[in-house]
Prior knowledge:
With 375 residues, the chain is of the alpha/beta class.
Amino acid sequence: MKPTGFIFHEDYVKHDTGTQVYSFPDGGTMNVGLEFENHHRVRYIKEMLEKSGLLQQMHSVIPEPARDEDLLRVHTERHLAHIRDTAAKGLRVFGPEAYGCPVSEEVARLSAGGAIKAVDIAMGEESGLTQAYALIRPPGHHASSDQAMGFCLYNNVAVAARYAQAKYGLSRVAIIDWDVHHGNGTQDIFYEDDSVLFISLHEAQNFPSDTGDVTETGAGKGEGYTVNVPLPSATGEAGYRHAFEQVVLPVLEEYRPELVLISAGQDPNGMDPLSRMMVMRPGFRYMARTLRELAERVCDGRVVVLQEGGYSLPYLPIATLGVIEGLMDCEVDFQDPHSIPERPLMEEAIQAVQKSRHALAPYWNHLHDTQTAHK
């Protein structure tokens, strides 16, 4: 097994997003249960890793909270004040579709700190390890520099990228986001920056419905360094493999990052209530293994996996098991009780990937056959 760090803190379960309650004009209410992003998500993933035996093979590390200087490389003073004040007042709504409780600012800071610790591990500061998985919450990729959104308060992967640049002097960091929802916050933060390559594979027009188009390729110095691959519903593993082979890997091979960061939302799984993408455990194993192998080729194996979304409590731990299997180069003896037939590569997925290649071809030699120079 490939030696791997594991970052987790018990306080992650203290971030309480509340329950979903429907209100009616006559004053009546209807409680329909926990919010999608709830504490059971990390509990179940951790238990799956324990019961499968993988956690015992990992190097466990407890993170510390991110400092103001870490967060301010990404977020504005106003944003930090808003998250802090909202939590202190005991308000539930931190932004559009972003909920919390009085301790949520502290936990969100600890989540970003988990991402930072994962970078330290990947850079060789923990027993010579070069890869890590951070089981953190709340997630982060929808949070922009000045707004919480979509379950996300601070943008963990962006904080990790800027920390890696500040502490280790890296000039090329790659972020690959396979969460089913577009990482609009991450895109916004790095849109004009060529020192961070952002690649997002997501379900087209899911959430947010107005971002993540193939035409969004960056601006200014960052033109060409934002890569969007919006995929049609029910794409499945074959379609994700096709996107990796035709877009993700060629761009990464040409960019040659010094560190690979993965926004790992396992909500493209076939059981997730917030998606329709049909990717099962083998597909997640493939994506993690492929990016680990890429990191071994181009940056001495330095790869960090950060937990983002995934909302099917029965299947999220199984999908994440696949991710860790791919990261650690193993396959545990666990019989997946959920049977969804593997989908063939659809023509719609082929066309979607081709559109992405066409939009990015002017910037990446590996995406076309002409000799147009890379910017």
